[in-house]
Design a protein that fits this description.
The complex is a heterodimer. By secondary structure, chain A is α/β, with parallel strands linked by helices. Chain A contains ten helices and eight strands. Chain B is α+β, with helices and mostly antiparallel strands. Classes of the chains: A alpha/beta, B alpha+beta.
């Protein structure tokens, strides 16, 4: 239901970079560009997306309560040691859009590095990427309105990058000379990679070798062993078609999201996603997209829980509803 | 009634119209304009150090997730006086509140109740309410739902506001002074939106307060500037914070005053009174403009709240102590006609009202005309069969405790604005006939503290409208409902005589009293 951010990400990806590995149609791009100015308007078209944001934090907290990514083996770094500071996790938000999630996560970064108490997100830093220059500018402008977030931006604990996922991967592979081409060095990977309302907007173009599956494989390459890839999307079912296409995009006052936000055909069922993720784990274990075998799935963990929007009450986690509507999903890479 | 409907339908203003309203004025200034120096930034700034404002601070400090927030409180009065407040066991302040069990359990949860001097509070388990015109009566207690083996549940707990405020202050002091600033003896000279700081955050949508000390001795220093992520208006009926946010209020004055006093009672009749059960009494006096209530305090004392016309209130305040107690006793016992007569009697002319307190002992030998009138008229007034349905006789009034305050109804059109939230009297002022004013304020505090806690644990900005709408959504309808109910009761019980209204209201009261299910529902609702 709330996926403009991702859409826009991929739209721009397609238009800005002809050689890009992503593809989204140009009319979707114009649809979302028209919404840019109202991105942070609490009563605006992104309201439903804003309302969902706290639940993302709840879901992340539930993932962390299952398993906290282990501290990096290199204790030589100047970062505060996890023995004293439990808030060491590095986050990457892919397709951050106007920064609804990224900014809220940055706000959860403790301002006092000496803090001994664990924050709900245990965040030490966050990098948020989006290929849209307009949206990154909106995100940066909005971040200045909060002194806490502004301070994190200035200190580098919070970073907005105007680039694509492929740009990020490429820069990581070229930067350190010692690294093997197969994978980025561990220190450049992230403990938590988030992908909220993105995957259902990936257009499958087999001719260019692009599919949601290849996109997920790239995301998983950036996750450290023991880390989580966390996202949300919508199942492709009759109820979700009725809710997201017919009701949610109906004219005011019934509709809550702008018309043309979703394409039901691109929605992803949890089973499909789990399959893609498993294949992605195997592929990401080997940089040349050759199957790495079941060994790559060892220690993997899969989580999935549905969320339902009740008008007037907001979003609620409803276990079981993942098979017919919006849901959060998470995969933990084996340590 | 039309204004009430308007208030009740406010939440349904369409979103785009609300937006237009929100971005309206945002400025309040009584003196200087803020300087361009960058202000000190706080997460929560609370204007007003009454029970609501201090309660919010105590709740935030007591909750682990919010205890690290940088908070400030600004209060015009000297809080040091409130900290060191003390009275002996025989004397009680006339500003007393009836705390519902849910208010008390909230205060227990945030660790405030441990600091309340419980020897000075009085829970009561029963409430007798009757109509002075028709005699219809309702008894509120939990006997219907209490087994014979347990004590009767508490209806409410009488607590002096000073006792509560002192407890709140010591609870806040217990939490240490890290990230906490209390600006006592300080006024807010202006509130304005901040500015976009070059090479720094953009505070142009943040409220920035200019603080000035009330004492002129230290006026040499420039006004202190503080910016608030969330500015909480706990600053009463004329809230400057509400004016800054340009939030309108609707309401009316009841043209009534509440007369308060601390009274001493005669010893309880051991035959008719049940031990360990304290009762609150309230009699509606339609001919006199409102109800009279006698609320129990420890040591055989009680607090009086008598809502009546402005003229009657002035008359009552001018009476010497003996005449005053006689009139209070009459108000619980005599018919409307007799009472109306007594409130028009010529005041005792021998002593002027101001000197009566001191000279009352010397004139005690003489017969007070009000006492005389009461004794004579009681002989001709039928009394209820069960003596426990009447309060014990009032024997005296605590010196200097008779006071009065105007009764008003106010309801803010909204409780929130970007980076602004209103709590307590700044958001709503209601008729005191159900003793719900402070309870609603504490309900606001609990809801706002919970909202801030949720925001703090979910990466939300505590001043953001999306955060605050949780608070407003929880409280607006509840407060409008209770305020409206009190207003309707007030109007219903201001119709004198034995007409259809009096018949209908008495019939309603009798039905409620007779049907346990309805009464239980009402009592749970009142909690």
């Amino acid at each position: 239901m709330a996926s403009r951010r991702a859409l826009r990400t991929l739209n721009h990806l397609a238009t800005r970079r002809a050689h890009s590995t992503s593809s989204v149609s140009a009319n979707e791009l114009s649809h979302f560009s028209a919404l840019a100015s109202s991105w942070w308007d609490p009563q605006g078209p992104s309201r439903v997306l804003h309302l969902m944001n706290p639940l993302r934090h709840d879901f992340i907290a539930s993932c962390l309560s299952d398993a906290v990514p282990p501290p990096p083996p290199s204790a030589s770094s100047s970062a505060p040691s996890p023995a004293t500071n439990p808030n060491t996790l590095r986050y990457l938000d892919i397709g951050c859009g106007g920064g609804i999630f990224a900014e809220s996560l940055a706000r959860s970064i403790s301002t006092s590095p000496a803090s001994q108490t664990a924050t709900p997100t245990r965040a030490a830093s966050i990098t948020a990427i989006d290929p849209s220059t307009t949206l990154i500018q909106i995100a940066r402008d909005h971040a200045r309105l909060d002194p806490t977030v502004d301070a994190h931006l200035r200190s580098g604990r919070f970073e907005y990058k105007n680039c694509t996922l492929e740009d990020l991967l490429a820069s990581q592979q070229t930067l350190p000379s010692t690294s093997t081409p197969a994978s980025a060095p561990t220190s450049e990977k992230y403990d938590i990679v988030t992908l909220f309302e993105v995957i259902e907007h990936i257009e499958s173009t087999p001719s260019a070798g692009i599919s949601p599956q290849s996109f997920l494989t790239d995301c998983l390459r950036l996750v450290r062993p023991g880390g989580w890839l966390i996202g949300s999307t919508i199942a492709r079912t009759f109820p979700s078609w009725l809710v997201n296409q017919v009701i949610a995009e109906a004219p005011w006052p019934i509709g809550v999201v702008p018309r043309g936000t979703h394409e039901w055909q691109k929605f992803v069922n949890p089973g499909e996603l789990e399959g893609w993720v498993q294949e992605g784990l195997m592929r990401s274990a080997d940089g040349r997209a050759v199957r790495a075998g079941a060994a790559a799935l060892e220690g993997m963990r899969w989580k999935c829980v549905g969320v339902v929007y009740f008008p007037g009450f907001g979003w609620k986690l409803v276990p079981g509803s993942e098979s017919w509507g919006n849901y959060f999903w998470a995969v933990r890479k084996g340590a | 009634m039309r204004a009430l409907v308007r208030t009740a339908t406010r939440p349904y203003v369409c979103p785009s119209c609300q937006l237009g309203r929100l971005s309206a004025r945002r400025r309040f200034a009584s003196a200087s304009t803020p300087s361009s120096a960058s202000p000190e930034i706080y997460d929560v700034v609370c204007v007003g150090g009454g029970p609501a404002g201090l309660g919010l601070l105590a709740a935030l400090r007591a909750t682990p997730a919010t205890s690290k927030l940088k908070v400030a409180l600004v209060e015009t009065q000297d809080l040091q006086k409130a900290r060191s407040w003390s009275l002996d066991a025989q004397h009680y302040s006339n500003r007393v509140s009836s705390l519902t069990p849910s208010s008390v359990s909230f205060l227990q949860k945030i660790g405030v109740w441990d600091n309340v001097d419980t020897a000075r509070v009085q829970p009561y388990q029963e409430m007798q309410v009757w109509d002075g015109e028709t005699g219809s009566r309702i008894t509120f207690d939990w006997s219907m739902e209490t087994s014979p083996f347990e004590d009767l549940r508490t209806v409410a707990t009488m607590t002096e506001n000073s006792n509560l405020v002192r407890a709140l202050l010591s609870r806040i002091a217990e939490s240490g002074d890290e990230n906490l600033s209390i600006f006592s003896n300080t006024t807010v000279s202006s509130i304005a939106n901040g500015s976009d700081i070059p090479d720094g955050p953009d505070l142009s949508a943040w409220p920035v307060l200019s603080l000035a000390p009330t004492t002129t001795s230290s006026s040499a220093q420039p006004p202190k500037q503080i910016a608030a992520r969330l500015l909480v208006g706990a600053d009463g009926i004329n809230s400057p914070v509400r004016r800054f946010a340009d939030i309108s209020t609707s309401g009316w004055d009841y043209d009534r005053h509440g007369v308060v006093a601390t009274l001493s009672l005669s010893d309880l009749d051991p035959v008719h009174s049940t031990p360990n059960i304290k009762t609150a009494f309230q009699r509606f006096l339609p001919a006199l403009g409102g109800p009279i209530a006698l609320l129990p305090l420890p040591n055989n004392t009680a607090s009086l709240v008598w809502s009546t016309t402005v003229a009657n209130a002035a008359y009552l305040k001018s009476l010497p102590p003996r005449a005053f107690t006689a009139t209070v006793n009459a108000a619980f016992r005599l018919s409307m006609i007799d009472l109306t007569y007594m409130l028009r009697m010529e005041r005792p002319s021998a002593t002027s009202p101001t000197s009566t307190d001191s000279s009352s002992s010397s004139s005690s030998a003489a017969v007070d005309p009000h006492e005389d009138e009461l004794t004579w008229r009681l002989q001709h007034t039928p009394q209820p069969r069960k003596p426990s349905q009447l309060p014990p006789l009032v024997t005296g009034v605590q010196e200097g405790s008779v006071a009065s305050f105007p009764l008003r109804f106010r309801h803010a059109s909204t409780y929130i604005s970007p980076r602004v939230a209103l709590i307590g009297d700044a958001a709503h002022v209601i008729h005191p006939l159900a003793g719900q004013g402070l309870n609603l304020g504490l309900g606001d505090v609990a809801a706002l503290a919970q909202t801030v806690e949720y925001a703090a644990t979910h990466g939300m900005d505590v001043g953001d409208l999306l955060t605050l709408e949780r608070y407003a959504g929880e409280r607006f309808a509840t407060n409008a409902k209770i305020g409206g109910a009190c207003d309707v009761l007030h109007k219903l019980y201001n119709v004198p005589g034995n007409g259809p209204v009096a018949w209908a209201r008495s019939f309603g009261l009798d039905v409620i009293d007779a049907v346990p299910f309805v009464k239980g529902l009402l009592m749970r609702g009142a909690q």
